[in-house]
Amino acid sequence: MPNPDWGQLKEKIKEYAGSIGIDKIGFTDAQSLFDHLPRLLRRRNKKYRYALDEGDPEKRVNPLLHMKDAKSIISVAVSYPCHDPAVHRNGEARGRFSFISRGKDYHAVVMDRLQKLKEFILSWAPQAKTVAMADKEEILEKAIAVRAGLGWFGKHTLLVTPEYGSWVCLGELITDIPFPPDQPFAGDCGRCRQCLEACPTKALDNDNNLDPDRCLGGLTQSKELFEPELRTLMGTTLYGCDICQVVCPHNKQVQPAAHHEFRHGYEEAYPLLSDLISMTNAEFKKRFGHTSGAWRGRTPVQRNAVIAAGNLKDTGSVPAIIDIMISDSRPVMRAVSAWALGKIGDMEGIKALRLALKNEEDPMVVKEIKRSLLEIDG
């Protein structure tokens, strides 16, 4: 194909994409997204305490800063499972990983498909240039997906597709090939406010903004010790949050594709809290290292497991929590353990709190110990 018809190649790419596990694909030009820049700058200027690094605003809106001679962007979506395993085990204190954090890390899954797509394109256009991205805050992928016709921007700030709802992970392939663009998707959430009303921390507002200092999905990934109010609202979540998606009407009757990489068992979705709390770093990597729920390391997930045990008042986790509070080198873990022991109210835990107060030197941990003892003695 020495002088390819780019429209013809585009159709070949779409056909091939379906054969390698890409559920949706669309094409758009590489023009800037500068109309989104003011919003990004406002978010950066607010200096959220718990927000993850959102990257360089200029690079996020300008594809040419990723490839100076970019002409097109190929946007892809891969759906992931949105149904819990059928097994339910009552009477056990377990935490919950969000749907997207189960199975193989979705970043790797999407990048694998993009690599295959790149190789296919090069087989027809060997001189083509490409740059692949998958949810790394490098570019505004949801805005690109809308422009490429994949779906619309929901009030929960996620992309909503007609076929799979918002249960999709996204990726992009920037290229210097001038593909004919697809039409942007025309759709919206209308008057529906179910996601805004269901959010337990009220992290969403009417202007499609998400407050990262209140979003449970973001807080579970942070490495800080956040306010007791937010810890209580976390319930038993270990990583991520699905509440705004579960209540969305567009997500009710969708059926994701059965991608083998996302298969998982009950123990991966709902691990025992006592196991997580006492887990070494090596054990954590061995058991969860392949998932996206492990990308921030053991500490956030283990901290969340301690919070979940506190919310459940799980006396079975008390020995492991005491061990952390007394001997762990991480102040965040000692502090959250002190909080959880106060919530559980077990006599063994209360005794440990009083002992720890005599020896603890970190101000943050001392504050949590005193708070718990005050509430208990209250």
Report on the structure:
This protein is α+β, with helices and mostly antiparallel strands and 378 residues long. It folds into two domains: 1-266, no CATH class; 271-378, Leucine-rich Repeat Variant, CATH 1.25.10. It is built from 17 helices and eight strands. The chain has a four-stranded antiparallel sheet with strand order 1-2-7-4, with helices on both faces. Strands 3-8 form a two-stranded parallel sheet. A two-stranded antiparallel sheet has the order 5-6. Helix 13 (298-312) packs parallel to helix 15, helix 14 packs parallel to helix 16 and helix 15 runs parallel beside helix 17 (363-377). It is elongated and about 75 Å long. The N and C termini lie far apart (79 Å). The mean pLDDT is 93.
